[in-house]
Amino acid sequence: MYKSMLRLIVMALRSFFFLIYEINKCNYMMKRPEKYSELDKYREVQKIVDKMRKNSRTTTKVYGKENLPETGNYVMYANHQGHYDGLGIVCNHDRPLTIIIDSKREHQMIVRQMLPMVGGHGINLKDARQQMKTMMTVTRELKEGKIYLLFPEGKYGDNKNTLQDFKAGVFKCAMDAKVPVIPVALIDSYKAMDGNSLRKVTTQVHYLKPIPYEEYKDMKKTELAELTKSRIQEAINEYAK
Fold it and tell me: Which residues are in the Phospholipid/glycerol acyltransferase domain (predicted)?
C-alpha cells in the first residue's frame, strides 16, 4: 500500500511546512468571510495546488481552454484516475469552481481546509439518501451561478487511462439546472501522485467542446452520460501515448 503511495508521501514531505502555513491561512480566511471573496479563496487554493504539483514533479499540459464559456455557469464532467485529478483542473481553471469528493477523503489534512475554501461537498458513495441530498444542493447552487467539477465514475482504482462506467444520476443536476456540460479528458493524471516512481511526469487536461442544454434537453440521463463518456474516450484514444 505505502509503496504505491510513494509519490504522494514524498510530495507531502516536501510540502510539509508550506502546508502547515497554508492550513492556518485557510482557517484564518474562512473565519473572515466579510474580508475574503470567493475569488480570493479560490486563488489561495490554486497557490496550494500549484505548490503540490511542483513538489510531485508534475507538469500539466492544458488544451481546449477556448471551449470554456467566459461567462455563465456550467458543469465539467471528467474521468477519474487518482489523487491529482481535481488538482490538475483547479490549477489551470481561471474562474472559481467547486467540487464534489468522496466523503472518505474530505477530512484528510489540507483537503478539509481546501474543500470549504471552494465551497465543495463530500458525498457518501454508500448512502443513496445522502447522495440525493448532496446532488439537490449541487442543482440549487448551479441555478445560483456556481461552476461545478464532477467525476461521474464516482471513484477510481487502478484504471489508469481506461474509462469506468459513468453513473447517469450525476447528470441530473446539469439537466435540472439547464446548464452546458463540458466533458473533460484527463490523461496520465494517475502518474502525478500515485505509484512508486519519483521521475518527472507530464499529465494532460483536455477541455472538450461543450454540450449545450439545447443539444441534450430531449435526452435521457443515460444518453447524456454515454455521449459525455464517448467524447472523453475519443480524446483519450487520440492523445494518450
Answer: 74-189
Q: Is residue 2 pLDDT above 60, yes or no?
A: no
> 126: burial class by Cβ within 10 Å (0-12, 13-18, 19+)?
exposed
DSSP bridge partners of 60: 203
User: Dihedral through CA 191, CA 196, CA 200, CA 202, nearest 10?
Assistant: -10
Predicted confidence at residue 4, as pLDDT, reads 61
146, burial (CB in 10 Å: exposed 0-12, middle 13-18, buried 19+): buried
Residue 193 and residue 56 in contact, taking contact as beta carbons nearer than 8 Å: yes
Beta strands in the chain (DSSP E): 58-63, 75-78, 98-102, 121-123, 148-150, 181-187, 201-207
Residues 197 and 7 sit within 8 Å (Cβ to Cβ): yes
Domain residue ranges in the chain:
6-239
| 214 pLDDT more than 50 | yes
State the architecture of 6-239 in CATH terms. Answer: 3-Layer(aba) Sandwich (3.40)
| d(C-alpha 125, C-alpha 188), whole Å | 25
